[in-house]
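Q: Joint fold for the lines below.
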Amino acid sequence: MSDPQNAESLSSSDRSTPLSERYWYPVFFMLVVSIVFIGVLAVFYRSSEPRIKRAQEQAFRSQVLSLFAGEIGLLSGLSETELLSIENVDNNFQRFIESICLTNADITYYSAHFEGVRLGYCLDITGKGLWGTMSALVAMKPDLMTVINLSVYDQMETPGLGARITESWFRQQFAGKVLYDNDKPVTLSLVPEDALNPDPAQIRQVTGATITSQSVLKMLAQELTLIRDQVKQGLQP
Amino acid sequence: MTRSQIFRHSAFKENSVWKQILGICSTLAVTNLMLNSLIMGIGVIFSLAFANLTISLVRNYIPRSVRMMTQTLIIAFYVIIVDIFLKAYLPAISKQLGPYVGLIITNCILMGRAEAFAAKNKPLDSFIDGIGAGFGYTLVLLAIALIREILGFGSLFGFTILGDWWIKWAIMVMAPSAFFILAIFIWIINNKYYKGKA
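A: Joint structure:
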């Protein structure tokens, strides 16, 4: 049984097995396929990464500028479309907005100005929504009490319901609202969407999205206050 | 089968949604707006056709034991390409669709066509089959989105159709409405199209 000839024939038959029949072939195949596809993907991603980054940055800048569109327009005569057109966003951002970083608190906020006149501050806040976190930019007058405008720029709420907090009728309700009374947050409350004459301390909520509407108010009362305190501290000479 | 027969077979006769009841999750999720449905459909057609083509090209080299892993890898590859492309060139739409593009990977239609067709047929035929199945899927999405967007938003592709007098149906905006519409849709098609042919 163990004569050398037999052993020889066995190993030669092993050698003649096609590649695809070897026991390690599936592992090898999977490895090669993975490396090839992931390699191509990595190259493709790397090559479009600058474009993606730029698109994101531009969207953010245009968002910040749009919050001050009314103020800037009043002083400079630029219309909102001129201010936010894709070619001009970067220039306008540099002209009117200054990013300020509070390194000790890891907060970046934005200050808007026009020829030496301070128009206000824009704070970036993040809070909890119904389905996930949401982030908003809040533009405030230089007193850091009155809201100029607000924009929820990142959210995961239900499209058509909670996501309607991004619609202008909802956002515009916050314009001119004084959120602080002697540094204490003022409590805002919700009224139905079709309420005719809400009080100054009332916000018309999105129908069918009570939790989302409440989340926005909560975010303003809690997160905004936290960040505002830090910013105020940073502003003190 | 000729190529046009392959197309008609996978788009209508063996339609993935109404005949095979595949891809239902995304049918429920993205159909509240026509535009989202259209972009989703185009994304699926693209990734399905090219995944089918690639799988068919390598079908004779794939070991049986890792065949599904390979198919998933190839599908994921094309879906991620679509995702990166949207992020780089159509950021607004990419934001609208959010996580749904990535979820094309788990769309059963892609795996279904890979297993049922691409793994056994020639590359070009598989490509046509992918386009056909994707087209059939898009058709269903658009049909459901048509009803949901008109009743839920009063608009079509974002343009207001029904005036202020229209009271928007909140249920049409949420996923449950797609259940009803899809069910009615499948019922009608089964009655009209397949009755007596089974």
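Q: Anything notable?
A: Residues 3-193 of chain B form one domain. Chain B has a mean pLDDT of 87.
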